[in-house]
Specification:
The protein has 224 residues and is α/β, with parallel strands linked by helices. The chain has 7 helices and 9 strands. The protein folds into 2 domains: 120 residues, 3-Layer(aba) Sandwich (Rossmann fold); 81 residues, Rossmann fold, CATH 3.40.50.10190.
């Protein structure tokens, strides 16, 4: 079990007390509480005290993990064991949005859709994809790498690559993630064009997870 809380504010003491209460509940029920600053692949269930667009939430979405309200652990406590998760899942009507703060929306059906894709189809959203992440992206390249890998991608940092390109089944399976304001003279925009690979900004990855789309977000034009 992992948890995503809120830092700062006048009521931080109250929030910290609630975190500690939930941690104790999870341990008493026999669960392991994962306490890390970054997403941990061991996490199967993420508790959300207040949803925000963080690495942990995005990676949990990508991996099709359970994203749950804290009421789930209270229901488990009352039942004396692990309760069914679905009625406590982070979910709104599929025509509605959930706020992640700072004007950042989450499609109401995102968590359930990503989870069912993994459970029923045995697939994650970035399965079969190889991604190369250029320097100076925001979120930072290691953060994007963890999010993409949680979703099944083989993600590589451009700063750590050798001169050899990774093996791929086709150019269509290669994403090159470049900074939002990258122009045609950016070296990885040029390499993506040479490879006939899809060149995308970080928003492509985030919107693929958080927004409802019948088609994937648009890529940057080759060489542009």
């Amino acid at each position: 079990v992992g948890r995503e809380g809120v830092r700062g504010g006048e009521d931080e003491v109250e929030k910290e007390a609630e975190r500690e209460r939930l941690q104790e509940l999870a341990r008493r029920l026999g669960g392991e509480f994962v306490m890390t600053s970054n997403f941990d692949p061991r996490c199967s269930h993420m508790l959300l005290l207040a949803p925000k667009r963080s690495e942990k939430l995005l990676a949990a979405l990508a991996g099709g993990r359970w994203l749950l309200k804290k009421s789930w652990l209270d229901a488990c406590d009352q039942a004396g064991g692990w309760a069914a998760e679905e009625e406590h899942e982070l979910y709104a009507s599929e025509s509605e949005e959930i706020s992640l703060g700072k004007g950042r929306p989450l499609w109401g059906g995102a968590a359930r859709s990503r989870r069912l894709q993994r459970e029923l189809q045995g697939r994650r959203i970035f399965d079969g994809c190889t991604a190369i992440i250029a320097d100076d992206t925001f979120p930072a390249p290691p953060t994007l790498q963890r999010i993409l890998e949680a979703g099944g991608a083989h993600a590589l940092l451009a700063s750590e690559m050798s001169t050899h390109m990774p093996a791929m089944s086709s150019a269509s399976s290669l994403l090159v993630v470049v900074p939002e304001n990258a122009t045609s003279d950016h070296p990885w925009v040029q390499r993506a064009a040479t490879l006939q690979a899809k060149c995308v900004p970080p928003a492509y990855v985030i919107e693929a997870l958080t927004l409802e789309r019948s088609q994937p977000p648009p890529a940057l034009p080759a060489g542009a």
